[in-house]
Design a protein that fits this description.
Length: about 90
């Protein structure tokens, strides 16, 4: 396989073909632009609105306060004395 640096160096020194830029720009202009249309956008917006309304309307579980976890406290199941000796 050829050294890529040498190949790039030769390519940089090569003359640019006449009319290359004009041909490239003409082909770009000739290709039709992809359009999604208004229908797909409206469908996306409608789907997002429906999911939002369903998500807002479905009741969740009521919020409950959790007791604070103190991993090294006396009453904690994670205290070193409980973990090592098995006795609080």
């Amino acid at each position: 396989m050829e050294n890529i640096d040498e190949a790039l160096r030769r390519l940089a020194l090569a003359p640019v073909p006449a009319g290359l830029e004009d041909r490239v720009l003409a082909r770009i202009a000739a290709q039709p632009a992809a359009r999604t249309g208004l229908g797909l956008g409206a469908l996306t917006i409608t789907g997002a609105l429906v999911m939002g309304m369903i998500g807002a309307g479905v009741p969740g579980r009521p919020a409950a306060a959790m007791s604070p976890l103190a991993p090294l406290g006396l009453q904690s199941p994670f205290a070193p004395s409980t973990l090592l000796a098995g006795v609080p």
